[in-house]
Amino acid sequence: MLGFAKKAKTPGDTQPTGPRHVAIIMDGNGRWAKKKHLPRALGHKKGVEVVREIVRHAGKTGLEALSLYAFSSENWKRPEDEISDLMGLLRAFIKSDLDEFAANDVRLKIIGNYRALAPDIVDLIDNAIARTAHNSRTTLAVALNYGSQDELVRAATAAAAEGAITAEGIEAHLDTADLPPLDLLIRTSGEQRLSNFMLWQAAYAELWFTDTLWPDFTPAEFDTALAEFGKRERRYGGR
Ligand code: FPP
Hints:
By secondary structure, the chain is an alpha/beta fold.
């Protein structure tokens, strides 16, 4: 545990002060590569190395869920060779890191319509999900072919089919329905927007932005974000 001591609000109340669920919009791979006069693909490759470090680190902080925006439904507009590089990295990542997830009690979950990816990737993912399904320390939710507006349309449609569109009904059909509420949303690279990521889930999340490009993001900076979260006063519309 990385020091999120339980802070008692009232005697017997052991609510942790650290976030339960953190999401990250990992941005800036392209700019990192450009700054170093490297091909974009190497920016994404370094980005995956950072993903690995942050997943390892997140497990040590006691976080219940880490959600990562890896490929949006809009990313299909990118040049074919870049899409192919990203898919290649995804394949390699699942193959190389699955044993480590399994050993470290990490459950892999995908949000978004990953079934539209190449059949071999779908198989790799299905196998990884099945193999880690009973792990319970941390859930790693990777967003693939994910768009929050699409997720909301699907959730509202499913809620309507059950008779009524209510907030609880929509929430129950979000891709994230089995995750704790989103506490903290981090975006790297200086951009300050949600880019169709977790629009519903971010309703009461704390937002934290850094100019650091994703390939330069470190576990220490992740801890800085968590410490900042610890200082925020969350009011959920109350006072
Ligand atoms: C943004 O950088 C990043 C992405 C579009 C993809 C994020 C993907 C990874 C970190 C690697 C794949 C992840 C896994 C889990 C295998 P950008 O290309 O938009 O950067 P730019 O805005 O500087 O051009």
